[in-house]
Amino acid sequence: MSSNSFSYNEQSGGGEATELGQEATSTISPSGAFGLFSSDLKKNEDLKQMLESNKDSAKLDAMKRIVGMIAKGKNASELFPAVVKNVASKNIEIKKLVYVYLVRYAEEQQDLALLSISTFQRALKDPNQLIRASALRVLSSIRVPIIVPIMMLAIKEASADLSPYVRKNAAHAIQKLYSLDPEQKEMLIEVIEKLLKDKSTLVAGSVVMAFEEVCPDRIDLIHKNYRKLCNLLVDVEEWGQVVIIHMLTRYARTQFVSPWKEGDELEDNGKNFYESDDDQKEKTDKRKKPYTMDPDHRLLIRNTKPLLQSRNAAVVMAVAQLYWHISPKSEAGIISKSLVRLLRSNREVQYIVLQNIATMSIQRKGMFEPYLKSFYVRSTDPTMIKTLKLEILTNLANEANISILLREFQTYVKSQDKQFAAATIQTIGRCATNILEVTDTCLNGLVCLLSNRDEIVVAESVVVIKKLLQMQPAQHGEIIKHMAKLLDSITVPVARASILWLIGENCERVPKIAPDVLRKMAKSFTSEDDLVKLQILNLGAKLYLTNSKQTKLLTQYILNLGKYDQNYDIRDRTRFIRQLIVPNEKSGALSKYAKKIFLAQKPAPLLESPFKDRDHFQLGTLSHTLNIKATGYLELSNWPEVAPDPSVRNVEVIELAKEWTPAGKAKQENSAKKLYSESEEEEDSSDSSSDSESESGSESVEQGESGEEGDSNEDSSEDSSSEQDSESERESGLENKRTAKRNSKAKGKSDSEDGEKENEKSKTSRSSNDESSSIEDSSSDSESESEPESESESRRVTKEKEKKTKQDRTPLTKDVSLLDLDDFNPVSTPVALPTPALSPSLMADLEGLNLSTSSSVISVSTPAFVPTKTHVLLHRMSGKGLAAHYFFPRQPCIFGDKMVSIQITLNNTTDRKIENIHIGEKKLPIGMKMHVFNPIDSLEPEGSITVSMGIDFCDSTQTASFQLCTKDDCFSVNIQPPVGELLLPVAMSEKDFKKEQGVLTGMNETSAVIIAAPQNFTPSVIFQKVVNVANVGAVPSGQDNVHRFAAKTVHSGSLMLVTVELKEGSTAQLIINTEKTVIGSVLLRELKPVLSQG
Amino acid sequence: MIHSLFLINSSGDIFLEKHWKSVVSRSVCDYFFEAQERATEAENVPPVIPTPHHYLLSVYRHKIFFVAVIQTEVPPLFVIEFLHRVVDTFQDYFGVCSEPVIKDNVVVVYEVLEEMLDNGFPLATESNILKELIKPPTILRTVVNTITGSTNVGDQLPTGQLSVVPWRRTGVKYTNNEAYFDVIEEIDAIIDKSGSTITAEIQGVIDACVKLTGMPDLTLSFMNPRLLDDVSFHPCVRFKRWESERILSFIPPDGNFRLLSYHVSAQNLVAIPVYVKHNISFRDSSSHGRFEITVGPKQTMGKTIEGVTVTSQMPKGVLNMSLTPSQGTHTFDPVTKMLSWDVGKINPQKLPSLKGTMSLQAGASKPDENPTINLQFKIQQLAISAQAPADDAHQSHAAIVQTHQGASRIALQRR
């Protein structure tokens, strides 16, 4: 009893409440049998009294205590009548707490709950939007079926409310009503349809959520709102972004054709393998038509990209899965960096992200290879994170990095977390089977582990070795002998069983040992684990068949033991084996084949990733995480063969005009919004009919608009030409304003746009005269922005005239696709090939731009490989005990854009301190610059230190000479860079590569023929050799026989394109295209011998 | 979306439950307890647990499990990220997020949770808005409330939720307008036995404290924006401006917030400012081992290294350790085998060291590996990503985490 009241005291929320609680306790007189019961009653009585008092403070205290009870999961339902009376309280906090109570218990006390409804109905009409919103929120949270009609009415009204906040709450209420009464679905869909048209960023996320919950299959509702959603996305709150992105991913998979080219598929390891021939054919058929991405598809991909920088892990993951599922494979690479960044987050976030990376890394190793080291295991990681990281490391292992990985694994095997150590051993086994070059190394390593002290490690090694040996039935007698010896010491059943199985399989290779093992096992049979017993029986059977002379009796003994075993599996097996191998009169035809049955060639087990089969789930979903289809999971459909009509996404102008009717309030809000975000500006301008559109900003919105306009043209082109004219006039007016603004802003850029303009001109002239001249004017004197507009318009026009001008079509589409790209990446060209006219500062600016807008096309990427080769700077003999080595870490130098970073390791080989190591006099050729390291105060005997410095070599292989000084001496040293280190790798697409290569012909091209053995021409060998010599980035190639690499020089940023084209026989053509012909030819000279040697 | 939330302490008691839709019985948590038992350690409890009718998604922070119950497919990160946001909010409100504090403030907690989710979908997660809706408890306010009977609930309706700048409230006024930016960088490095760095990466954040009147629109430019190529922003930062000009342009929230965080993985450039010399030996035959570690500074640009703590998980065979530190205090927990040594500041003239013997389990074979040493420390006024690199350290497989503060690379502009 008293304990009861104490716990009750605890609940009451401190301060004054406690005091009151004590009061309550004192009133309760402990009275035997019904004490417990009465105290409950009393307590509640007490609360009731407080609730009925006149003082707000007493009411508030009572409510606080009640909420405390709810929080603890205690039943407070009998207070319902007393509480519900306070729903109209003037005190906001009491009101809120009553709401909390109401929402919790209304379901249980439906009749009483109705008492409160009128209050909410009144509040729904309140002039204050926040009160309206909260009334709707609570009303819709009360799960009482009888008020469904009231809720429906309230939702309908609220969805037309002037305040976007109320509309947002209406969207939330839709889901609540739907879960309460699914029969309202049709009506609710109408409301959803209406709210989807809403232009407010507040509403977008919530209504899409409602859409997903109520009618995810009504994809047709999205069409008209698709472009708007894409454009609003950046400004929607983060939770809404997640929901919208997931929905749009599904939408895109039903509405657009696949952007994945067949060449890309080859990257997916072995995926093609299982596809039937028909599939292949279909694909090739498709390929015949050149693929052009729907501009809407592009819009989505482009507008989600900035969200990769969101602070919210869920948003980043959502964008990542969108890129994975709908972007062209060449562009998906940009997500890896962001995903790797998430790994610094909390344990739970890491867990989910790593799972998704594991699935991705199976299909596309290349994406995460540069981040290999980010997946190294830390001793502080929880085991589940460790095993996931291991999984990814295994997926990423290849010929180039396996040696580094194996070294890392060695550390893991020694980990104190034995579960993790065991997982590592399995991993080594998988690497050994996947990468044939290291199978023997791994096997040897595992054999060494057999003598490990820890039993779990040994057992796991045995199991893995068994699998490995099974795959390689070569001569491994030694290993088997070694393992046979282990039987004496090892106790883990799985390991013992594995050893026995191995000996049985290879009993003819170890003829002396096998019978002896059987003898030992016969002795210990009765005390073995079931698993081991079965294998003893198998071993016996196999030996009986191959070596019956020595083992006949032993086997029979074992069979007799097995016959009376407690486990029926073992008894069964015994009976089966006896019938099969021991000849007697009853034995049937089968026994003749006993040897074939027992000693058949067994297929090797396939060591596969457990994440292999997860790719059929959409990434980032719960189903993917669990690898089970979760309730409510929506399958991601396959790409349609033919894209559904894209015009459904066009928004009609009439509707737009309606929306333009000015609303004073909306305008006010807009001005606030304008202040903030650019894309929203666009959005608002269409809202409020003001001409603020001239401010311009995101091209994408315009593109969307142009679609609208283009549509209007289409609709009305036949008869109402006047309307069309006025439309285009307006357009041109805006256009001019925009141009003016833009021109003042972007003088520097105009160079780069020249080319595009020309394209555009030619295209506009080609496209028919349907277009009004005003548009043509504006676009030709223009900037790149107007381009998508005329482009999509012309496309539409083309479509209209398709039948007539079929011949025109092909060149047109080609143009469009080219332009698509340019528009996406306006400044990529000048960066790669800076004209001397550009001042360095402008160049730097452009570079900044380049980094952001065009990372998918040409940008500096991380080095594919960092050679560990060091060069001697100062030998210890000549340096009086001070030795110095340097190497090129291939990182962008932090001291300056044009510098090559160099790391110098200084070693003190003397037995005394070397003090004040610094760089003295520099003798640099003209133009060269050098950033020295900070002086080192002292270097201990036997100590070593690594420092880093930067040298700007001016793109030449001239030697940088300088003095390395200590306190007492000065040594002249020099660094001559290998030509390959004067480069920075860039990532570019094959298309761009070819384009750039087309420009750099004639004088800028050098080539050579290489002759070498064919085994030197495998892709991995060529890749390894090239990146070893030069810091270049690989360019994805559609052809097997052509390998492309791209880089730019550090100083001037000139492109350096390397092509290795394999010819018949054992020759290959090595081509280098670059403006810097001197470096080009030096690089050619260095690459040639490397590629030709064995 | 999120159906219910259960808060479970480390001893397995559910001390708070909140339901946003119909009530889910707390017996659903039995599945969670089962998983917890299987996992042995709290941090190994899987974050996602399927049960026949529900899915349990949990985060573990401050020794409390926050278990969300969901019924249908939902991106798991959505829920996990939200739960972390809940914990952050509690921390923001109460200073610490612990079981007693949550129990003491159960009403505020409930009110906050009520505002954060509507029908399981996040509604207001910006702490600026929440604080307008429900005022955080302070000692003064508790006293005032007790006397006057006023409440924690804001009496003015919040307007932030309605604006396009939901993270900033209107009508902010300060007499002294000021803004502070802290650059905090952490290096995370693994160094092998021979002292060579296996991996190292820099994780940096810029935390801001902005106290400016009205609706300030700030721009922030960097000396070397190239380093910031892997960044994530507070929602207030305009993505487009950053993409095109590499300039941060934003209307800041009022008060403290994290403006951006960045990640630099140029591992060759990371200079690790400390080294650890270790001499740990187990002898096969005897039941004693020797233990000695010394910590010393390296490449610190003349800055002091502070707040150094060394932790190391000793092998199971170690029964006890008798050690003497030259400075600071140390503890060894014979149950978890965790050695921790709180060093404090490093004085370059007199390097801190910890020496002594270990008593090993008799008869047990010697551990096959030296234990991992974790080292954490702080250096004020130093940003590692912009400084000259150098690294060298002699220690076993260890992770180093460090914090730097400095505001050197920032130029602030006020418009």
UniProtKB/TrEMBL annotation, chain B:
Its main location: Golgi. It is found in: Golgi apparatus; Cytoplasmic vesicle membrane. Pfam families: Adap_comp_sub (PF00928), Clat_adaptor_s (PF01217). It is a peripheral membrane protein. InterPro entries: Adaptor_comp_med_subunit, AP2_Mu_C_sf, AP_mu_sigma_su, Clathrin_mu, Clathrin_mu_CS, Longin-like_dom_sf, MHD. One of its GO terms (biological process) is vesicle-mediated transport. Keywords: Cytoplasmic vesicle, Golgi apparatus, Membrane, Protein transport, Transport. GO terms for cellular component: clathrin adaptor complex; cytoplasmic vesicle membrane; Golgi apparatus. Residues 176-415 form the MHD domain. Belongs to the adaptor complexes medium subunit family. Part of the AP-3 complex, an adaptor-related complex which is not clathrin-associated. The complex is associated with the Golgi region as well as more peripheral structures. It facilitates the budding of vesicles from the Golgi membrane and may be directly involved in trafficking to lysosomes. In concert with the BLOC-1 complex, AP-3 is required to target cargos into vesicles assembled at cell bodies for delivery into neurites and nerve terminals. This is AP-3 complex subunit mu-2. It comes from Gorilla gorilla gorilla. The gene is AP3M2.
